[in-house]
Write a structure and sequence with these properties.
Elements: E1 4-5, H1 9-18, E2 24-29, H2 34-45, E3 55-60, H3 65-75, E4 83-88, E5 91-97, H4 103-112
């Protein structure tokens, strides 16, 4: 399993535009938070449920907080940490935070796209 890193606002904008071709997900993670580490571990344990060509991006909030701020501004989703977002056709169609994060909940949304 390989995370793709999300490190700039410009990259975020390109990902949002690319979501018109196929959905992507962003996992917002705080490296100083045990709940965030637990949520990340849950995502990693369920990674195999996702389609092989699905792109899941990792955002280190402590290093790239301006990107999280841009997510909030551009997609209208209030910042949480940890947080999992599904971006499809330029919009956030799923988001969850903390213990509500579930890879299994993404699956029906991916099949519908």
């Amino acid at each position: 399993m390989n995370w793709k890193n999300l490190e700039s606002v410009e990259q975020l904008e390109a990902l949002i535009q690319g979501s018109y071709q196929k959905p992507i997900a962003i996992f917002k993670h705080s490296t100083r938070c045990s709940i965030s580490s637990m949520a990340m571990s849950r995502v990693e344990r369920n990674w195999e449920l996702l389609p092989a060509d699905f792109d899941l991006y990792y955002l280190d909030l402590l290093t790239h907080r301006p990107v999280s701020n841009a997510i909030e501004a551009q997609l209208g989703i209030e910042h949480q940490s940890p947080q999992l977002l599904l971006i499809d056709n330029g919009k956030c169609t799923y988001y969850a935070s903390h213990t509500e994060i579930s890879v299994a909940e993404l699956l029906p949304l991916l099949k519908a796209s």
